[in-house]
Write a structure and sequence with these properties.
single chain, mainly beta, four-stranded mixed beta sheet, three-stranded antiparallel beta sheet, rod-shaped
């Protein structure tokens, strides 16, 4: 007999054999009793559910180097016995990932963050695009004297050199002068 037929059932076989059939994840105790003498013995049965899938809450994300984000992995089915996962980054110089799915950007670029189930080796991934904020801009020359009728060129340098958005907007404090 089984202590919990919702977990495991027993089908008696020939004389001293029986088949144990798993029903769902959990534990049950199988009891056997000798017909002569009423002696009993037990066997603890643990039924485990295989992992069938893993998914992430995002398939792509964009982060700046001063941001962090945590991905959420969902292992299925919900009653899977071993929901543990391992996280990896395709390029740790661009972004790293912790054992809890926390992404830390390092420099501008693209990395693929993967999660893999430890049981069943199911995988999911998220493409992470890392961008670098602009930290400053300089103009050259910084001081200019120009005569009427002349034309001079100014150049702007955005820093850092790997900034993702290097565009600038030009304006004059007094368009009646220049």
């Amino acid at each position: 007999s089984s202590s919990d037929e919702s977990v495991a059932t027993v089908i008696p076989g020939a004389l001293t054999y029986a088949s144990v059939n798993p029903v769902k994840a959990g534990t049950a105790t199988i009891h056997v009793t000798a017909v002569d003498g009423g002696f009993t013995a037990t066997c603890k049965v643990t039924v485990k559910q295989h992992v069938e899938s893993v998914s992430l809450n995002k398939s792509a994300t964009t982060l700046y180097t001063d941001q962090v984000e945590t991905l959420i992995a969902t292992v299925g089915p919900s009653d899977a016995s071993d929901k543990s996962v391992t996280w990896t980054s395709s390029d740790e110089s661009v972004a790293t990932v912790s054992s809890t799915g926390k992404i830390t950007p390092k420099k501008a670029g693209t990395a693929i963050i993967r999660v893999r189930t430890n049981e069943g080796s199911k995988e999911a991934s998220c493409t992470v695009t890392v961008k670098q904020h602009v930290t400053g801009v300089t103009v050259s020359p910084s001081d200019l004297t120009i005569y009427l009728g002349e034309s001079k060129t100014l150049s702007a340098t955005v820093s850092p050199s790997d900034a993702s958005e290097k565009g600038v907007t030009w304006s004059s404090s007094n368009s009646n002068v220049a």
